């Protein structure tokens, strides 16, 4: 058993893998905290781009002659794009390393954001939203990167803060894009139709710059570039990649976490898409106020997702994996109940209050989920992260298609759909009870095997 | 005389109700007392272009439909461009609501004028920001309290006749397209550049 090295050149205390055991988000000490800041900022720009379209929809739908069905389909398309890309990102991270993977996805989807200025009908609108959605794969790379840089006792809070601060991009864009659009119309005197097209240069530029920064200043591991253990022969490397993929897919925990993540993060994504419209149409608010409320839903991510990560690490410290699982189940079920309540709320202020609470709980649940993911499989970390992340967007697609697409609008009102979404959340969180880790137990079961030497050491680390 | 008195009483009740609810008037409470026509500047069957084409609108008090209705409180008229049902289909943000305050049928104001029973004409240019859709023209009459008391349509009750189509100016331009392509190329080239650099560094 090797004690943590005290003679390393790192400015943060590290474990035997040189992963940081302390998380200090307000410093930029290389390589750990610098990696953290690069990761969350580049993911922030991807969220900013993907959700740049909803706040400008009133102008876009006027220009492109869109129907409600077109808008719904495009919303689904934006998530569908990210399902495949997140699944692919898992093995790509295992192969190329998170830095290269993040930058590649950002730089390849920036042209899609720019192509938004070419849109002229509903088909191009749907295709562009599909392509821009690919950039959300960077989420998997971000979590992979954080899990490579930070030790077990702080991995959940590192994941939570990175993803939480990055998710703020979805709320920030709801505030900023209308401002850019107004500026272009009022000050630069462009027509509405030109203004929204020019406005998309901003997210594209931001995405490109952050990607280049990741390439220039980021490193995959505390010790340097990502290297597969089999640099020696390419054959072994290919075998490993496929085995890693299969290993991840065979693990039932990846599937369950994918399902539950679908009903916390997926619900969050769907709510990002429909909230402004809901307040605009149900309570007759003007577009800016409705946008501000929708923005505050996304902005809550600054604190709520990190809070989820903190709770996960704290519960992990006290009660091990059992604590992490129980806290995830409680928080996500509470989020489901609040979502149900939102649909039943008839007053404006009541709805705003419920939205605040709902945003906190649903985002904390996302943070808590990625407090469990790093422990599922060390070998296939990328694949499991990809499956969970993908499950998130699959959940978004399912909820959006089932409850908020054009055809469902004929059978039930938006508020009924929101309540139903809450009920679905509560039911789909129940599979967490089935999760079982041989060395840590599950929600209702004790561990079957005594902790091994390595687990004992990990446990000691968590207590420091 | 009796008809006049009873209709006066009814309109007084209506007016007092209107004072309480301000603009929250149901559409069915309005009297269709104004006859209005809108003639496009181009032959029928063709489409109007946003920013270019004009509409000549003329309106006057319809003698037959305003019998027994008190028109002394008519002060101003507001003329709006309204979406025809075909452009409202599957577009909830343009739907027709009973309550005028919530109604989203008429979103484009053409002009506001003081009320005159006859000899009114106005030539309006279709504004640039009017989206591509099928329209008709509606006139709302306001009283001295800024409440809507009457209206007139260029189309029939089913909103099927006398509709005209507008094609809006597109915001795309060559300059914008070129800028997009250049920026995209920069993005992809910089990515390839970095990867080639990495490979070279790995070799040395």
Helix share, percent of chain B: 25-40%
The parts of chain B where pLDDT drops under 50 for at least 5 residues are 1-22
CATH class of chain A: Mainly Alpha
User: Can you count the helices of chain A?
Assistant: 19
Cα distance, first to last residue of chain B? 107 Å
Query: Taking Cα atoms only, what radius of gyration of chain B do you get, to the nearest Å?
Result: 26 Å
Q: If strands are numbered along the chain, what order do they take across the biggest sheet of chain A?
A: 1-2
Number of helices in the DSSP assignment of chain B: 3
Q: Main β-sheet of chain A, in a few words?
A: 2 strands, antiparallel
Number of domains of chain A: 1
Compose a concise summary of this entry.
Chain A has helices at 32-50, 57-64, 68-96, 98-114, 122-132, 138-149, 155-186, 192-199, 201-217, 234-250, 252-262, 265-282, 287-299, 301-319, 321-344, 348-372, 381-404, 414-429, 453-463, and strands at residues 436-437, 441-442. By secondary structure, chain A is an all-alpha fold.
List the helices and strands and how they pair.
The complex is a heterodimer of chains A (464) and B (204).
Chain A lengths: L31 H19 L6 H8 L3 H29 L1 H17 L7 H11 L5 H12 L5 H32 L5 H8 L1 H17 L16 H17 L1 H11 L2 H18 L4 H13 L1 H19 L1 H24 L3 H25 L8 H24 L9 H16 L6 E2 L3 E2 L10 H11 L1
Antiparallel strand pairs in A: 1-2
Helix pairs in contact in A: 1-4, 1-6, 1-7, 1-9, 3-4, 3-5, 3-6, 3-17, 4-5, 4-6, 4-9, 6-7, 6-17, 7-8, 7-13, 7-14, 7-16, 10-17, 11-17, 12-13, 12-16, 12-17, 13-16, 14-15, 14-16, 15-16, 15-18
Chain B lengths: L1 H20 L9 E2 L1 E7 L7 E2 L4 E8 L14 E8 L1 H4 L17 E9 L5 E6 L7 E10 L5 E6 L10 E4 L6 H30 L1
Parallel strand pairs in B: 1-9, 3-10
Antiparallel strand pairs in B: 2-4, 4-7, 5-6, 5-8, 8-9, 8-10
């Amino acid at each position: 058993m090797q004690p943590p090295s005290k003679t390393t050149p790192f400015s943060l205390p590290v474990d035997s893998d040189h992963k940081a055991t302390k998380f200090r988000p307000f410093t930029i000490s290389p390589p750990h905290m610098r990696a953290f800041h690069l990761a969350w900022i580049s993911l922030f720009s991807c969220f900013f781009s993907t959700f740049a379209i909803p706040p400008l929809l009133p102008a876009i739908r006027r220009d492109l002659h869109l129907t409600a069905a077109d808008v719904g389909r495009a919303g689904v398309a934006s998530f569908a794009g990210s399902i495949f890309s997140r699944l692919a990102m898992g093995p790509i991270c295992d192969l190329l390393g998170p830095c290269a993977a993040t930058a590649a996805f950002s730089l390849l989807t920036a042209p899609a954001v720019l192509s938004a200025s070419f849109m002229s009908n509903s088909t191009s609108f749907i295709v562009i939203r599909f392509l821009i959605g690919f950039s959300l794969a960077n989420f998997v790379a971000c979590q992979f990167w954080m899990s490579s840089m930070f030790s077990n006792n702080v991995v959940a809070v590192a994941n939570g803060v990175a993803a939480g601060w990055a998710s703020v991009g979805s709320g920030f864009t709801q505030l900023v894009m209308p401002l850019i659009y107004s500026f272009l119309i009022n000050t630069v005197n462009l027509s509405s139709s030109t203004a929204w097209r020019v406005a998309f240069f901003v997210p594209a530029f931001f995405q490109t710059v952050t990607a280049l920064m990741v390439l220039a200043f980021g490193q995959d591991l505390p010790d340097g570039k990502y290297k597969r253990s089999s640099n020696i022969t390419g054959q072994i490397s290919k075998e490993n990649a496929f085995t890693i993929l299969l290993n991840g897919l065979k693990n039932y925990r990846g599937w369950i976490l994918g399902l539950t993540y679908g009903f916390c993060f997926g619900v969050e994504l769907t709510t990002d898409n429909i909230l402004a419209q809901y307040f605009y149409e149900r309570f007759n608010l003007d577009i800016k106020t409705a946008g501000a409320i929708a923005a505050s839903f996304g902005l809550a991510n600054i604190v709520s997702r990190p809070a989820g990560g903190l709770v996960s690490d704290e519960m992990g410290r006290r009660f091990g994996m059992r604590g992490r699982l129980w806290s995830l189940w409680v928080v996500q079920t509470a989020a489901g109940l609040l979502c149900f309540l939102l649909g039943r709320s008839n007053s404006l202020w009541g709805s705003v209050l419920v939205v605040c609470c709902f945003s906190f709980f649903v985002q904390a649940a996302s943070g808590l989920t990625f407090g469990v993911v790093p422990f599922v499989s060390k070998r296939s970390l990328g694949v499991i992260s990809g499956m969970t992340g993908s499950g998130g967007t699959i959940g978004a697609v399912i909820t959006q298609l089932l409850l908020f697409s054009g055809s469902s609008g004929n059978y039930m009102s938006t508020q009924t759909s929101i309540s139903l979404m809450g009920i679905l959340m509560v039911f789909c969180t129940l599979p967490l009870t089935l999760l079982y880790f041989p060395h840590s137990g599950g929600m209702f079961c004790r561990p079957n095997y005594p902790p091994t030497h390595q687990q004992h050491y990990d446990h000691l680390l968590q207590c420091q | 005389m009796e008809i006049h008195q009873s209709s006066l009483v009814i309109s007084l009740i209506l007016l007092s109700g209107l004072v309480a609810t301000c603009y929250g008037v149901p559409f069915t409470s309005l009297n269709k007392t104004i006859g209005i026509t809108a003639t496009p500047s181009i032959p029928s069957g063709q489409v109007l272009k946003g920013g270019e084409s004009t509409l000549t609108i003329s309106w006057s008090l319809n003698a037959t439909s305003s019998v027994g209705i008190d028109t002394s409180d008519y002060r101003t008229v507001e003329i709006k461009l309204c979406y025809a049902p075909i452009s409202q289909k599957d577009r909830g943000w343009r739907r027709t609501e009973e309550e005028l305050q919530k109604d989203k049928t008429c979103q484009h104001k053409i002009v506001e004028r003081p009320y005159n029973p006859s000899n009114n004409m106005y030539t309006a240019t279709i504004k640039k920001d009017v989206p591509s859709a099928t329209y008709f023209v509606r006139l709302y009459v306001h009283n001295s309290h800024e409440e809507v008391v009457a209206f007139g349509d260029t189309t029939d009750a089913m909103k099927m006749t006398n509709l005209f189509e507008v094609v809006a100016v597109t915001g795309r331009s060559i300059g914008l397209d070129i800028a997009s392509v250049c920026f995209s190329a920069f993005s992809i080239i910089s990515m390839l550049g970095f990867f080639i650099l990495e490979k070279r560094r790995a070799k040395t």
